Amino acid sequence: MMDASGDGSYAAGGPWRLGRLVGPASIAFFAFLPALVVLLLFVGAVESDDVATDFGQFYAAAEAVLRGESPYSTAEPLTAWGGPYPYPPLPAILATPLTALSLELAGLLVMGVLVCVALAIPWVLGVRDWRCYGLLLLWPPVISAIQTGNVTLWFALGSAVVWRFRDRLLPSSASIGITLAAKFFLWPLVVWLVATRRVAAAALSCAIAAFLLVLSWAVVRFAGFVDYPGLVRDLEDRVGSDSYTAYIVGLDLGLPSTASRAIWIALGAALVAAVVLLARRGDEKSSFVLAIAAALALAPIVWLHYFALLLVVVAVARPRLAFVWFLPLGMILTPGSGQPTPFETSWTLAVAAATIGLAVHASLADNRAVARRVGYAC
User: Fold this and answer.
1) Is residue 126 over pLDDT 80?
2) Nearest to 138 by CA among 281, 253, 41, 252
3) What pLDDT sits at residue 371?
4) Which residues contact 375 (CB under 8 A, 6 or more apart)?
């Protein structure tokens, strides 16, 4: 309906007025709200004496290293949940400079750095849509990764570097090698390198990981080296029920432990097989996305912050704002840890699967579009 002026706008204000609201609304949602959430995260952590919860284990292990002691045989448990230090020595060694600060100050510094790391990940992957940067700071797994002060976002940045510099030997190999020496988690990326015929990079990444593992363990005189596999198994037994894994879903459904474990391993193996298959077909992007998915699927312990790796998945598949960027917000229902209910576990994995599925769909569509353009050109 035209107004009396006959200029084409609606009597209720017209679409031009709605357009005027879009800009301020975008700024409010994608800029002010994330800034407020991050500010409240820091304020809440200080007020609740809950600064960088997981960083405390690295800080305590670093102090043990500086005293010439083993981080694996201290009298006091080093983790918030009362267990021993569960990582190889490298993260503890890298944390030693931070022991010059108090634990709280060091934790706040770590949280601040992790905010920067989270923002660096999409930048490395070529994302230039400013709205994506604000939105990712609203993702519950990213917030959890910052608040807990662990290594997840560093692993995500390492994965981003692998993709960005996939055709350069040293950056890609060093990124994977360092992460493997800190935690044997992103090993499916080595499979991806081999499947995409980057065998030299895969071999060098394993060599770098082995060198750093031996070197870092030599610093602590190989204390805990023999017993480390048992320590990892004990950790899984102690806190594995908190995990967001297919194995836990099987147990929640009433399946026997053996059957649940078989389904969990079969799912991971299928993802690794898909990594190889898609890579052989020339679809490196979809294959890379599924390699990240395989790392998450095969990890025996997965907490909320692990899903911050979905940032790499989404940024690789969609470097501009799209629906898939909003999906991880669904994990607002996901507790960071603490015995999630069967619904919470299933919901979290469903959100992660939907995010990965849409990312793969987008990557496959891009691959088909490229193939059509090549066909037309020919």
Assistant:
1) yes
2) 41
3) 61
4) none
